[in-house]
Write a structure and sequence with these properties.
The chain is an alpha/beta fold. It is built from 20 helices and 8 strands. About 23% of the residues have low confidence. Bound molecules: guanosine-5'-triphosphate. The site of guanosine-5'-triphosphate (GTP) has 22 residues, from helix 14. It catalyses: GTP + H2O = GDP + phosphate + H(+).
Length: 460
């Protein structure tokens, strides 16, 4: 089952096939009803014969109920989107292996990442065993529920912005012709799904739309959103969104790169808080010795979350600060070292050389480190974030992306080209400025947050 259907089934209890069947039943019933009406108009005497035939009167009554039921169900789901959290267990169950089973069992990551995995796995089991009871069970797992809610709220602006564009596009829909595909490409490019993705999608849709014989507005909407969601799902089959940790007792090192103001220091502060709360020994390294104030900013975060910072004077060689930090992390048995770096130097080449040097220093001391080179991108900058990612990726071995400032941004759709065109996994998402506002990236919840009305409400 594709992601579109998994989300749909999770929130409405039925997939596209079931939906289609109901639609057909409904149309059949309506057809039958109008045929019956015509018959009864034709002849008053026939009317008595019809009502006497039990088989016919049954078919007239039964399907009517089938049609009414789902409509009501869908209404409820649309009105209270955050409620059916228990139902999200199903898509998560389908996708979990791709995301989390690859994590090495012995690594410390077990303590952070798999917390969710275990929770989701046990939820899945419960789901198959006791679907009826799960509503009350979910209330005992507020963390999961809050997580969905945060994605839901954080992506509201992105969702509304795409939804508004999409509705305008649908309002103009007359028939599936060349103008339709031109408008579709424009819509997708405007919506930041990425140029290549937009063209690929519209090409694939040409075929699919023909095959599926799309005529109605709701069909068009369904086919487009399904394709968008399933293409994203498909492109991510090999993607591992979990953070990697040291496989032995040596410290794990995460190196943070990205342009000024993207949110590196804030993300480091949030992560330090997370691992500190989990009982890990965390050290920060102030590797941005270039920007005035950057060291103090990191030290301020260190004080807030009660984590030490290895720092030196401004303008010192950042590689030497990082060297000191690695030595300290090894000698004092730290679990995690988070390294801040400069977002800008005199020129791009200089910056990239500096990053390479920092990386070499780390690897010389700890051959398996850094376990992650995390590129921090300001998610609210849309296409700009995408081109930054392309540039960084050309010169630095980026292992994952942190997408910040998704809260209040209308550019959440940027996750689509990041995956479809760059193939770098998003690993963390910033959903606010506070220390708790950082989430492990969950592609399914993110996609639900982006398109929920268009998926859940599709075909209605
Ligand atoms: N709303 C929101 N704001 C964020 C988020 N992450 C960071 N910010 C804000 O973005 C601004 C810049 O963040 P920094 O962490 O200083 O960015 P930086 O990449 O370290 O910047 P430099 O130190 O200049 O290289 C700050 O005001 C943060 O509070 C987020 O997820 N959501």
């Amino acid at each position: 089952m594709g992601l579109f259907d998994r989300i749909k089934k999770a929130f409405t209890g039925k997939d596209e096939e079931e939906d289609k069947k109901e639609q057909e039943t409904k149309e059949a019933v309506e057809g039958e009803e109008s045929a019956n009406d015509a018959e009864s108009e034709d002849s008053e005497s026939d009317k008595s014969e019809n009502t006497e035939t039990p088989a016919e009167s049954e078919t007239e009554n039964e399907p009517k109920e089938v049609v009414e039921e789902p409509e009501q169900e869908a209404k409820e789901v649309n009105e209270e989107p955050a409620e059916p959290v228990e139902k999200t267990e199903e898509p998560v169950e389908d996708n979990t292996p791709a995301e989390s089973t690859e994590e090495p069992v012995e690594t410390p990551s077990e303590e952070s990442q798999p917390e969710e995995t275990t929770e989701l796995e046990s939820e899945s089991e419960q789901a198959t065993e006791t679907t009826e009871e799960s509503e009350s069970e979910v209330s005992e797992e507020p963390e999961e529920k809050d997580d969905i809610k945060e994605y839901d709220e954080g992506l509201k602006k992105s969702r509304n912005s795409f939804g508004a564009r999409f509705n305008r596009f649908l309002a103009n829909f007359r028939s599936v012709d060349e103008e339709f595909f031109d408008d579709l490409e424009e819509l997708l490019i405007e919506s930041d799904v990425g140029y290549e993705t937009a063209l690929k999608l519209s090409d694939e849709l040409r075929e699919e739309v023909k095959l599926e014989n799309v005529k109605k507005r709701s069909d068009v909407s369904d086919v487009i959103v399904r394709k968008l969601v399933d293409m994203y799902d498909e492109e991510g089959k090999e993607e591992d969104n979990s953070l990697k940790f040291s496989a032995d007792k040596t410290p794990t090192v995460f190196l943070f790169v990205g342009v000024n103001g993207a949110g590196k220091t804030t993300t480091i502060g949030k992560l330090a808080h997370r691992y500190q709360q989990e009982g890990k020994k965390v050290l920060l390294a102030a590797g941005d010795t270039f920007r005035a104030g950057a060291i103090e900013q990191l030290q301020e975060w260190g004080r807030r979350v009660n984590v030490p910072v290895e720092a030196s004077k401004p303008q010192t060689d950042p590689a030497s600060v990082v060297y000191d930090a690695v030595q300290r992390a090894v000698n004092d048995d730290y679990d995690i070292l988070l390294v801040d770096t400069a977002g800008r130097l005199q020129n791009k080449e200089g910056l990239m050389r500096e990053l390479e040097k920092i990386k070499r220093v780390i690897t010389r001391e700890l051959p398996d480190a850094p376990q992650e080179v995390l590129l921090v991108l300001d998610g609210s900058t849309g296409q700009n974030a995408l081109s930054q990612a392309k540039q960084f990726n050309e010169t630095t071995d980026v292992t994952g992306i942190v997408l910040t400032k998704i809260d209040g941004s209308s550019q959440g759709g940027i996750v689509l080209p990041i995956r479809n065109e760059l193939h770098i996994p998003v690993k963390l998402v910033g959903l606010g400025e506070q220390m708790d506002d950082l989430r492990d990236f969950d592609p399914e919840k993110f996609i639900y947050g982006l398109f929920k009305e268009l998926i859940v409400g599709s075909g209605k």
